[in-house]
UniProtKB/TrEMBL annotation:
<dbReference type="Pfam" id="PF05222">
    <property type="entry name" value="AlaDh_PNT_N"/>
</dbReference>
<dbReference type="InterPro" id="IPR007698">
    <property type="entry name" value="AlaDH/PNT_NAD(H)-bd"/>
</dbReference>
<keyword id="KW-0560">Oxidoreductase</keyword>
<dbReference type="Pfam" id="PF03435">
    <property type="entry name" value="Sacchrp_dh_NADP"/>
</dbReference>
<feature type="domain" description="Alanine dehydrogenase/pyridine nucleotide transhydrogenase N-terminal">
    <location>
        <begin position="31"/>
        <end position="147"/>
    </location>
</feature>
<comment type="similarity">
    <text>In the C-terminal section; belongs to the saccharopine dehydrogenase family.</text>
</comment>
<comment type="pathway">
    <text>Amino-acid degradation; L-lysine degradation via saccharopine pathway; glutaryl-CoA from L-lysine: step 1/6.</text>
</comment>
<dbReference type="Pfam" id="PF16653">
    <property type="entry name" value="Sacchrp_dh_C"/>
</dbReference>
<keyword id="KW-0511">Multifunctional enzyme</keyword>
<dbReference type="InterPro" id="IPR051168">
    <property type="entry name" value="AASS"/>
</dbReference>
<dbReference type="InterPro" id="IPR036291">
    <property type="entry name" value="NAD(P)-bd_dom_sf"/>
</dbReference>
<dbReference type="GO" id="GO:0019878">
    <property type="term" value="P:lysine biosynthetic process via aminoadipic acid"/>
</dbReference>
<dbReference type="GO" id="GO:0005737">
    <property type="term" value="C:cytoplasm"/>
</dbReference>
<comment type="pathway">
    <text>Amino-acid degradation; L-lysine degradation via saccharopine pathway; glutaryl-CoA from L-lysine: step 2/6.</text>
</comment>
<comment type="similarity">
    <text>In the N-terminal section; belongs to the AlaDH/PNT family.</text>
</comment>
<protein>
    <submittedName>
        <fullName>Uncharacterized protein</fullName>
    </submittedName>
</protein>
<keyword id="KW-0521">NADP</keyword>
């Protein structure tokens, strides 16, 4: 640690107007922490040149003719560093200055903020030293841009090589491999020379670098970009450049908010309105700019009210593999956008799928939009390279420290005057520093009291997630042992912080599900939910969440017990009138009962609402919504009469076909009588090779209000998806009354296993004409193999 003690004079000469005087007690002392956040962090808030400057100003007489190097900084009035301070090293009742990363209630840094408040530390955040226009005055921005661009070029070379393209970018190293920026610039110029000689693979097409933002980060990246043979183009010309641009240079496009932010209600971009109400705007970046970009260098500040540049759904479109026209030696790129350097390093921010920063040790990852996950393998056949190191300037520590110190130097006396003994409301410092004080006297200062509410909102969001997956000792009760229970138990068996209890009617079912457990995190109990109400009630009271996979007729009973015991509940069944009647009781008990949380209904609802939000977010209206969903087997596994395999209750699958249906088509209501949905087939032209058919599913019209669709939505249909052949088999089964839900005398225990197919079919009074129908006989014969009946039900 370095300790600078100011002895003789306490005045720093800046200008007559801004001359500052230290007003504290004793000798003004600045302590500079040694950075310990990681091995790469070698920056400091002040460089030796600033020490020399302080000496020449006559205000700093160093102990022992220089800076004292000691571990104890307790005598310092202000303790300065770049990165955050470990909680156990925070000294109570002191003034600290560093980048705290707390102003957005960043979850990872909230324990540190709590410790700062508890220890009554006065915290100055460099990020909030801004002028009246909210422009930052002290930053590493340029060097983040410099280092980010160099790292990106290095990663781009590796990624293109893995995709089969040798490029000059391979000759660029990571930023910390160069002694200073001049060496890095020389390497970029060598790369540019090869590009100018037309040595880029023609299969890559024109390379377009898009820079977001107009601040120091973006300008720093542009500064190095300009050492390549380049041409800047306007946003409006991107489609033409991406298609017909030259290969002996690269293209740059600087994108500002006005280029893609548009009011949701129409009109043009208004900077003042956007600054006050960013939620009124939507971004067209993903649809009008990103599709023509090869590389995106992101340097914009983002807050939670602002539209994102690229969302997860946008990524699925941008990273969809294009049709390939490979020729020997020149493979086609999987998609146009191949790399993103998110220098803003804001997880889940303007680039939604960038959920975790990379590091200097591991600077790159490949994002797969199909699975919404990342991999470290450059050889991945598709996906976008991501570089998002949160301390990029640490790769160029000497130059970054010098410039940062130049910007910080004029504010040093102001910061010294914020030493802890001075009351916050009487601080004798300029507003730029006072407004950067986050905490004082164990409280958030007025400008930052919003952090408390922001934390609360984030806590509620995370609590919703952690109720099943989150904190320790969460206990989940699973009711039912049907076909869905196996995958459910398998998933929870892999979770370390959840204990699952499976309640089954038969011991054998429970034993089967327990085998999915890991280190005893699944146990089973035998209970008859029809008869053992007291046992069931006690089980529900002992768990945090009940997941009912029982037949829907049992949900009302279970829900009432959950409300009584204050236990949340989830089902995959449709909301029944009986459950809907419990809505107010559940609200009064602060109990969540979530229904329709399976595939259909469930995931289809989520995808639908995601699509609606995307449309309305871009200023559009939903005039028609048609959705088909079905859990189908792989085509090669559909070799049975139904062209289907049961993944849930077979009875439920087949009897659902007996329900009526209702939907809206071109403004008119269409109603289908019970059992007639299979007579109202709807052609499916999506992926014709799969031979798909669809038919309406229950009452679609009720979802108009649930989905928030207005009267302009004239078509609303939710349907079921099946392979062709399913309907014909179902009709045959229905004709011979195999879908009848009434108990037949034939299935009495007295008959036993001697029941034959002839005896089974004769009471159904099948006519000779029907039996002579070759097609029906074929279906019946096949069904006799597919639907295996035991006489004892």
């Amino acid at each position: 640690m370095r300790l600078f003690q100011l002895k003789d004079s306490y005045r720093i000469g800046l200008s007559v107007r801004h001359c500052q005087v230290f007003v504290g007690k004793g000798s003004p002392t600045i302590g500079i922490r040694r950075e310990t956040v990681n091995a790469w962090e070698r920056r400091a808030p002040l460089a030796p040149s600033h020490v020399k400057k302080l000496t020449k100003s006559g205000i700093n007489d160093y102990v022992a003719a220089g800076a004292s190097v000691k571990e104890d900084l307790s005598e310092a009035h202000v303790i300065m560093s770049v990165k955050s301070v470990p909680i156990d090293q925070l000294i109570p009742n002191k003034t600290y200055a560093f980048f705290s990363h707390t102003i957005k209630a960043q979850q990872d840094n909230m324990p540190m903020l709590d410790a700062i408040l508890q220890k009554k530390i006065r915290l100055i955040d460099y990020e909030k030293i801004v002028d009246k226009r909210n422009k930052r005055l002290v930053m590493f921005g340029k060097w983040a841009g410099n280092a980010g661009f160099i790292d990106l070029i290095h990663g781009l070379g590796l990624r293109l090589l893995a995709l089969g393209h040798h490029t000059p970018f391979l000759h660029c190293g990571l930023a910390h491999n160069y002694n200073d920026s001049h060496m890095a610039i020389n390497a970029l110029r060598d790369i540019g020379y090869e590009i100018a000689l037309d040595k880029m693979p023609r299969s890559l097409g024109p390379l377009v670098f898009v820079f977001t933002g107009s601040g120091n980060v973006s300008k720093g990246a542009q500064e190095l970009f300009e050492h390549l043979p380049h041409e800047y183009v306007d946003v409006r010309t991107l489609p033409k450049v991406a298609k017909k641009g030259q290969l002996n240079k690269v293209y740059g496009c600087v994108v500002t908010r006005a280029d893609h932010m548009v009011p949701k209600n129409g009109g043009v971009f208004d900077k003042a309105e956007f600054n006050e109400h960013p939620e009124r705007y939507t971004s067209r970046f993903a649809t009008e700019i990103a599709p023509y970009s090869s590389v995106i260098i992101n340097g914009v500040y983002w807050d939670q009210r602002s539209p994102r540049l690229i969302t997860n759904p946008d990524a699925k479109s941008l990273f969809t593999p294009v049709q390939k026209y490979d020729t020997p030696g020149t493979p086609t790129l999987p998609h146009r956008l191949i790399a993103i350097c998110d220098i803003s390093a804001d997880p889940g921010g303007s680039i939604e799928f960038m959920t975790e920063c990379t590091t200097i040790d591991k600077p790159f990852t490949i994002y797969d939009a199909d699975f919404n996950k990342t991999t470290d393998s450059f050889a991945s056949p598709s996906g976008c390279l991501i570089c998002s190191i949160d301390n990029m300037p640490a790769q160029m520590p000497i130059e970054a420290t010098t410039q940062f110190g130049d910007l910080l130097y004029p504010w040093l006396i102001d910061m010294l005057n914020c030493e802890y003994s001075q009351p916050f409301d009487r601080l004798q410092c300029r507003d730029e520093i006072k407004n950067a004080v986050i905490t004082s006297d164990g409280k958030l200062t007025p400008n930052y009291e919003y952090i408390t509410e922001l934390r609360r909102q984030k806590s509620l969001q995370s609590a919703h997630k952690s109720s099943i997956m989150g904190s320790d000792d969460k206990k989940v009760l699973l009711l039912g042992a049907g076909m869905v229970s196996g995958p459910f138990a398998k998933f929870y068996g892999q979770q370390n912080k959840v204990r699952l209890t499976v309640a089954t009617e038969l011991e054998s079912d429970g034993t089967r599900l327990v085998k999915f457990g890991h280190e005893g995190n699944i146990c089973n109990v035998v209970v008859d939910v029809n008869k053992e109400n007291d046992v069931l009630d006690k089980l529900i009271s002992e768990h945090d969440l009940v997941v009912s996979l029982l037949p829907f007729t049992f949900h009302e009973k279970v829900a009432k017990m959950c409300i009584k015991n204050g236990t949340d509940m989830v089902t995959s069944s449709y909301v029944s009138p009986e459950l809907e009647a419990l809505d107010q009781a559940a609200k009064d008990a602060n109990v969540t009962i979530m229904n329709e949380a399976g595939l259909d209904p469930g995931i289809d609802h989520m995808l639908a609402c995601e699509a609606f939000d995307d449309v309305t977010g871009h200023g559009g209206r939903v005039t028609s919504f048609v959705s088909f969903c079905g859990g189908l087997p792989a085509p090669e596994c559909s070799d049975n009469p139904l062209r289907y395999k049961f993944s849930w209750s077979p009875k439920g699958v087949l009897t659902a076909l007996m329900n009526p249906a209702k939907y809206r088509k071109n403004g008119k209501i269409v109603e289908v009588a019970p059992g007639k949905v299979v007579d109202n087939l709807i052609a499916i032209d999506f992926m014709p090779g799969f031979n798909l058919i669809g038919f309406p599913n229950r009452d679609s019209t009720k979802y108009a209000d649930i989905y928030g669709l207005g009267p302009e939505c004239r078509t609303l249909l939710r349907g079921t998806l099946r392979y062709k052949g399913f309907v014909e088999t179902v009709k045959a089964l229905h004709a011979v009354k195999l879908l009848d839900t009434k108990q037949a005398d034939l299935f009495m225990s007295t008959i036993g296993p001697d029941l034959t197919w002839v005896r089974l079919s004769s009471p159904f009074r099948l006519s000779i004409t029907l039996l002579r129908s070759f097609k029906l006989v074929y279906f019946l014969l096949q069904a006799s193999k597919f639907l295996y009946f035991k006489a004892k039900m």
